[in-house]
UniProtKB/TrEMBL annotation:
AB hydrolase-1 domain span: 4-61
Gene name of the encoded protein: Abhd12_2
Species of origin: Chauna torquata
InterPro entries (UniProt xref): AB_hydrolase_1, AB_hydrolase_fold
Entry protein name: ABD12 lipase
PANTHER family given in the database record: ALPHA/BETA HYDROLASE DOMAIN-CONTAINING PROTEIN, PROTEIN ABHD12B
A GO biological-process term: phosphatidylserine catabolic process
A cellular-component GO term for this protein: endoplasmic reticulum membrane
One Gene Ontology MF term: phosphatidylcholine lysophospholipase activity
Domain of life: Eukaryota
Transmembrane segments: none
Length: 172
Protein backbone atom coordinates (compact mmCIF):
# COMPACT_ATOMS: atom_id res chain seq x y z
CA UNK A 1 0.00 0.00 0.00
CA UNK A 2 1.12 3.52 -0.78
CA UNK A 3 -0.21 6.95 0.02
CA UNK A 4 -0.88 7.54 -3.66
CA UNK A 5 -2.56 4.14 -4.02
CA UNK A 6 -4.86 4.77 -1.05
CA UNK A 7 -5.84 8.15 -2.48
CA UNK A 8 -6.51 6.66 -5.92
CA UNK A 9 -8.68 3.96 -4.34
CA UNK A 10 -10.77 6.53 -2.45
CA UNK A 11 -11.25 8.59 -5.61
CA UNK A 12 -12.45 5.48 -7.47
CA UNK A 13 -14.86 4.75 -4.62
CA UNK A 14 -16.02 8.38 -4.66
CA UNK A 15 -16.72 8.18 -8.40
CA UNK A 16 -18.63 4.92 -7.94
CA UNK A 17 -20.72 6.32 -5.06
CA UNK A 18 -21.34 9.65 -6.79
CA UNK A 19 -22.62 7.87 -9.92
CA UNK A 20 -25.15 5.98 -7.81
CA UNK A 21 -26.10 8.48 -5.11
CA UNK A 22 -28.22 10.95 -7.03
CA UNK A 23 -28.28 14.18 -5.06
CA UNK A 24 -27.24 12.57 -1.78
CA UNK A 25 -24.31 14.08 0.08
CA UNK A 26 -21.02 12.25 0.08
CA UNK A 27 -18.86 12.70 3.15
CA UNK A 28 -15.28 11.52 3.54
CA UNK A 29 -14.82 10.03 7.00
CA UNK A 30 -11.32 9.07 8.02
CA UNK A 31 -10.16 7.46 11.23
CA UNK A 32 -6.53 7.64 12.38
CA UNK A 33 -4.35 6.84 9.33
CA UNK A 34 -7.50 7.20 7.24
CA UNK A 35 -7.68 10.91 8.07
CA UNK A 36 -4.66 11.48 5.84
CA UNK A 37 -6.29 9.50 3.06
CA UNK A 38 -9.54 11.47 3.41
CA UNK A 39 -7.84 14.87 3.22
CA UNK A 40 -5.59 13.74 0.35
CA UNK A 41 -8.59 12.60 -1.68
CA UNK A 42 -10.59 15.74 -0.90
CA UNK A 43 -7.68 17.95 -1.90
CA UNK A 44 -7.10 16.03 -5.11
CA UNK A 45 -10.80 16.28 -6.02
CA UNK A 46 -10.75 20.00 -5.40
CA UNK A 47 -7.46 20.80 -7.15
CA UNK A 48 -7.57 18.40 -10.09
CA UNK A 49 -11.30 18.18 -10.82
CA UNK A 50 -12.66 21.38 -9.33
CA UNK A 51 -15.05 19.28 -7.25
CA UNK A 52 -15.64 19.78 -3.55
CA UNK A 53 -16.60 16.85 -1.35
CA UNK A 54 -19.73 17.65 0.67
CA UNK A 55 -17.92 17.38 4.03
CA UNK A 56 -15.04 15.68 5.81
CA UNK A 57 -15.06 14.08 9.25
CA UNK A 58 -11.68 13.31 10.78
CA UNK A 59 -11.70 10.99 13.78
CA UNK A 60 -8.53 10.67 15.90
CA UNK A 61 -6.51 12.76 13.48
CA UNK A 62 -2.99 14.11 13.31
CA UNK A 63 -1.04 16.79 11.46
CA UNK A 64 1.33 14.58 9.47
CA UNK A 65 2.25 10.90 9.62
CA UNK A 66 5.75 11.86 10.77
CA UNK A 67 4.41 13.75 13.76
CA UNK A 68 1.87 11.00 14.46
CA UNK A 69 4.57 8.31 14.42
CA UNK A 70 6.61 10.32 16.87
CA UNK A 71 3.67 10.28 19.32
CA UNK A 72 2.59 6.65 19.04
CA UNK A 73 3.27 5.20 22.50
CA UNK A 74 5.50 2.35 21.35
CA UNK A 75 7.76 4.78 19.48
CA UNK A 76 8.64 6.57 22.72
CA UNK A 77 10.61 3.52 23.81
CA UNK A 78 12.79 3.77 20.71
CA UNK A 79 13.40 7.52 20.79
CA UNK A 80 16.35 6.95 23.09
CA UNK A 81 18.16 4.80 20.53
CA UNK A 82 20.44 6.41 17.96
CA UNK A 83 19.02 6.34 14.46
CA UNK A 84 15.32 6.19 15.42
CA UNK A 85 14.50 9.30 13.45
CA UNK A 86 16.36 8.05 10.39
CA UNK A 87 15.24 4.42 10.55
CA UNK A 88 11.58 5.02 11.33
CA UNK A 89 10.50 8.56 10.58
CA UNK A 90 12.71 9.22 7.57
CA UNK A 91 11.98 5.80 6.08
CA UNK A 92 8.32 6.77 5.75
CA UNK A 93 9.34 9.86 3.80
CA UNK A 94 11.61 7.75 1.60
CA UNK A 95 8.56 5.60 0.86
CA UNK A 96 6.55 8.71 -0.07
CA UNK A 97 4.37 8.32 3.01
CA UNK A 98 3.60 11.82 4.29
CA UNK A 99 -0.17 12.03 4.86
CA UNK A 100 0.02 15.80 5.39
CA UNK A 101 -3.34 16.63 6.91
CA UNK A 102 -1.89 19.97 7.99
CA UNK A 103 -1.04 20.94 4.41
CA UNK A 104 -4.25 19.53 2.96
CA UNK A 105 -6.63 21.41 5.26
CA UNK A 106 -4.97 24.69 4.28
CA UNK A 107 -6.45 24.45 0.78
CA UNK A 108 -9.80 22.80 1.50
CA UNK A 109 -13.02 24.75 1.80
CA UNK A 110 -15.67 22.07 2.45
CA UNK A 111 -17.14 21.65 5.95
CA UNK A 112 -14.61 19.95 8.22
CA UNK A 113 -15.36 18.23 11.52
CA UNK A 114 -12.50 16.96 13.68
CA UNK A 115 -13.33 14.50 16.46
CA UNK A 116 -10.91 13.44 19.19
CA UNK A 117 -11.21 11.64 22.51
CA UNK A 118 -9.33 13.15 25.43
CA UNK A 119 -8.20 9.66 26.45
CA UNK A 120 -6.77 8.70 23.05
CA UNK A 121 -3.58 6.84 23.99
CA UNK A 122 -2.47 6.34 20.37
CA UNK A 123 -2.72 9.85 18.93
CA UNK A 124 -2.84 12.54 21.60
CA UNK A 125 -5.69 15.06 21.38
CA UNK A 126 -3.22 17.91 20.95
CA UNK A 127 -2.51 16.61 17.42
CA UNK A 128 -6.22 16.93 16.56
CA UNK A 129 -6.35 20.37 18.17
CA UNK A 130 -3.25 21.49 16.26
CA UNK A 131 -4.85 20.32 13.01
CA UNK A 132 -8.05 22.19 13.90
CA UNK A 133 -6.11 25.38 14.57
CA UNK A 134 -4.29 25.04 11.24
CA UNK A 135 -7.56 24.53 9.37
CA UNK A 136 -9.37 27.31 11.21
CA UNK A 137 -6.62 29.81 10.43
CA UNK A 138 -6.64 28.82 6.74
CA UNK A 139 -10.41 28.62 6.10
CA UNK A 140 -12.05 31.81 4.89
CA UNK A 141 -15.35 30.70 6.42
CA UNK A 142 -14.36 29.78 9.98
CA UNK A 143 -17.84 28.42 10.72
CA UNK A 144 -17.10 25.46 8.41
CA UNK A 145 -14.42 24.10 10.76
CA UNK A 146 -15.44 22.39 14.00
CA UNK A 147 -13.53 20.49 16.67
CA UNK A 148 -15.28 18.23 19.15
CA UNK A 149 -13.53 16.46 21.99
CA UNK A 150 -14.98 13.65 24.02
CA UNK A 151 -14.19 13.61 27.74
CA UNK A 152 -11.96 10.95 29.19
CA UNK A 153 -14.78 9.66 31.42
CA UNK A 154 -16.54 8.27 28.32
CA UNK A 155 -13.63 5.88 27.72
CA UNK A 156 -13.75 6.25 23.93
CA UNK A 157 -9.98 6.20 23.48
CA UNK A 158 -8.60 5.89 19.98
CA UNK A 159 -11.13 3.48 18.51
CA UNK A 160 -14.58 4.02 19.99
CA UNK A 161 -15.76 7.53 19.12
CA UNK A 162 -18.07 5.94 16.55
CA UNK A 163 -19.87 4.07 19.35
CA UNK A 164 -20.94 7.29 21.09
CA UNK A 165 -24.74 7.47 20.80
CA UNK A 166 -24.61 11.27 20.43
CA UNK A 167 -22.38 11.07 17.35
CA UNK A 168 -25.12 11.17 14.66
CA UNK A 169 -26.54 14.38 16.12
CA UNK A 170 -23.08 15.92 16.45
CA UNK A 171 -22.24 15.16 12.82
CA UNK A 172 -25.53 16.65 11.58
Amino acid sequence: PTESGFTTDVLALYDWAKARSGNSSIIFWGHSLGTGIATNAARKLQEERGVQVDAIVLESSYTSIREAAAHVPISKIYWQFPGFEYLILDSMALGNMFFRNDENVKVLSCPLLILHAEDDAVLPPQLGRKLFETARSAYKDKSKVKFITFPEKLGLGHDYISSNPELPALVK
